[in-house]
Amino acid sequence: RRGAPRCSCDRIACDGAYRPVCARDSRTYSNDCERQKAECQQKAAIPVKHEGPCDLGMPSPCLSVECTFGATCVVKNGEAVCECQQVCPSRYDPVCGSDNRTYGSPCELDAMACVLRQEIKVKHKGPCDRCSKCQFGAICEAETGRCVCPTECVSSSQPVC
């Protein structure tokens, strides 16, 4: 009917990441979002039995693994493997990391921390100021982030002491 509210599962958008969950309906869902989408479509609760795939009643090897630096545990050839699976939206929202590098977004900072297996925290929002300590009239060279002496002098009739 026109203008009448209706329930819809169309708005549930999952990122496609593979973080399998075994539900009580004995089905493996590729991630919890897909399980929730199935709940919506079936209009019935589908509780999680355990993380990882439903493989012949054996619990996932990932249950005993704790991944660090934002990595996600996945099962490959029956083995638990920690992988970096961050998918960052292409939105520029720069942050300065604790490693004094500028990242395009907090998500990109987290993704790099995962790949490098280092703890990198957001130092502050916005790009890092790599030339904050330029002294003695030096100016910041934007491309390299280095302090350089100016190549041109402005003539002045002021006396210099």
TrEMBL record:
It comes from Chelydra serpentina. This is Agrin. InterPro entries: Fol_N, Kazal_dom, Kazal_dom_sf, Prot_Inhib_GrowthFact_Antg. Residues 1-56, 83-130 form the Kazal-like domain. The keyword Disulfide bond applies. GO terms for cellular component: extracellular region. The gene is AGRN. Keywords: Disulfide bond, Protease inhibitor, Serine protease inhibitor. Pfam families: Kazal_2. GO terms for biological process: cell differentiation.
